[in-house]
Amino acid sequence: xxxxxxxxxxxxxxxxxxxxxxxxxxxxxxxxxxxxxxxxxxxxxxxxxxxxxxxxxxxxxxxxxxxxxxxxxxxxxxxxxxxxxxxxxxxxxxxxxxxxxxxxxxxxxxxxxxxxxxxxxxxxxxxxxxxxxxxxxxxxxxxxxxxxxxxxxxxxxxxxxxxxxxxxxxxxxxxxxxxxxxxxxxxxxxxxxxxxxxxxxxxxxxxxxxxxxxxxxxxxxxxxxxxxxxxxxxxxxxxxxxxxxxxxxxxxxxxxxxxxxxxxxxxxxxxxxxxxxxxxxxxxxxxxxxxxxxxxxxxxxxxxxxxxxxxxxxxxxxxxxxxxxxxxxxxxxxxxxxxxxxxxxxxxxxxxxxxxxxxxxxxxxxxxxxxxxxxxxxxxxxxxxxxxxxxxxxxxxxxxxxxxxxxxxxxxxxxxxxxxxxxxxxxxxxxxxxxxxxxxxxxxxxxxxxxxxxxxxxxxxxxxxxxxxxxxxxxxxxxxxxxxxxxxxxxxxxxxxxxxxxxxxxxxxxxxxxxxxxxxxxx
Length: 523
Ligand code: GLY
Fold this sequence. Notes:
Strand content: 15-25%
Shape: globular
Largest sheet: 7 strands, antiparallel
Bound molecules: glycine
Number of strands: 20
Strand order of the largest sheet: 6-3-2-10-9-1-20
């Protein structure tokens, strides 16, 4: 089964599974297909994290997060008066050195069973022969015209000045050529070959700073997944350079002290989760960064003892305040996909350009969009980024450094050690809270996966000190009571974009995000 935000990409993964590939082969096929069919977040010009659990018990995680270019500087996004500009979000300076091609290839070589050319075949076909645009694809591009219209991709995305109409066939010949070069020559085509040359030429033309040297030096990193437990279940989550795993583990460890948790949607449930989120996000925002550059207190933050001290600080009747943290001491459109194969191998992958359609910069000749992942650094430690996240020096910009992510591809095992859930999300910092809430809905509230996914979500990230909840997701009485306890609340539109698979009696149940688009395909 494959669940992603693009039905065509899920079908690409299924094609590979049916041809005898395993879950890793299918995940890589899905990833490349997403770069074609879901250009707002699927990519070869961005990065991500893949969390793998093989049926034989091996666990691994690959970090193919972008890195800051060698010419990046700490204050590159500040103007002369020290004010933040939007150059970390839009345009060539926003681009981190892409890791997607290297990371997917690395995962395939170690855990896959097929060649790059085999798993890339569906993506190449989708780019070359085109696919039928649906209304979501067309609407997404129409909404992005202000961004994409500034760059060369406008010729492809707005043929005749308009986004492709639903029902029309959309082809990407330049992208097909790049994908074919990668399939034929391997990652070298991207990092030290023709595709990379197009990227560097685009940088030179538009005023960006990524060089051939940056591309040649890029390396994905194998990481040991964070293994944690919650009430008899085992979670494998993503360690730094993502904050996802540590923040989820710390939150669940705090909540374990209040288990079984109060009923879903109640005042006490919302209060306790908020107080746990507040504490784990405070640590996240202050202490986490690329482990190659800062010492990350992983053991401490994920320990049960530490969580106990934090749980003891929670007042069940009153909201606490987020402390100011020692700053000297992360688009809205990422995408997650989940895969399982017949043997029980499982892959959770989250990948991103950061903002929808990334920096907007499109590589002429290469045919792909580049990320704006540099905004996930603390461009000005102590000042909020695009997601309102206030982060510290640990995540300040340095050449070659990975920007902190919230991506949290997660695999949950049941008490028998079998894969129960494969999940993860898009949505900046709401990735962490939404992924956790889906997991809690299943294992605490005993919901079916369909109910767990549709259930209203809320989010708190320490600063701003506000509970953001989906409009009508909390009753008026609950909102009033939480306000009386000292919480500030704000109603919002849908929170996050989760794609999950769950083991059910006799097979698997896949559910794509009910608030968005996608495809859950199995056989
Ligand atoms: N760009 C969103 C994240 O990595 O958290």
